[in-house]
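Weekly puzzle thread! Below is a chain. First person to post its structure in C-alpha cell form gets bragging rights.
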Amino acid sequence: MKTHVDQDDTRPAGRPDECFYCRRPIGAEHTFECVIPERKVRVRMIVEYPIDVPRAWTPEQVEFHRNESSWCADNALTELDALAKTGDDESPCLCDHVRFEYVGELPEP
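Winning reply:
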C-alpha cells in the first residue's frame, strides 16, 4: 500500500511540494484521513432492472434460466450497458437500479 507522499500526489491547483489532499510534504507519510492511501475491501452490488421473459414463465423458470441454464451472466453486462445508455421510464443511468453493500476487508498482499 502506498503510504508516503510523492510527486503523483500533487495537483496543479495545489503546491508542487506537497500532497494536495493532506498537505503533507513529499517524502512524508500521508495522514490517516488522506484519500490517497487505499485498501482493498469487498462490496456486493445489488441490481434490479426489467428484462423480457416468455409470458408463461414462472419465477422459478426465470431464476433457473439466469442462474443454472446455459445463459451466461456476462450477458447482463450488455443489458446493463443498454440501460445505462438509454434508460427506462425511471432514469437514463444505473443509479436508480443499483446499490452497494460493504461486505468486508481483504487482506493486504
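Puzzle host: Confirmed. Bonus trivia for everyone else. The mean pLDDT is 93.
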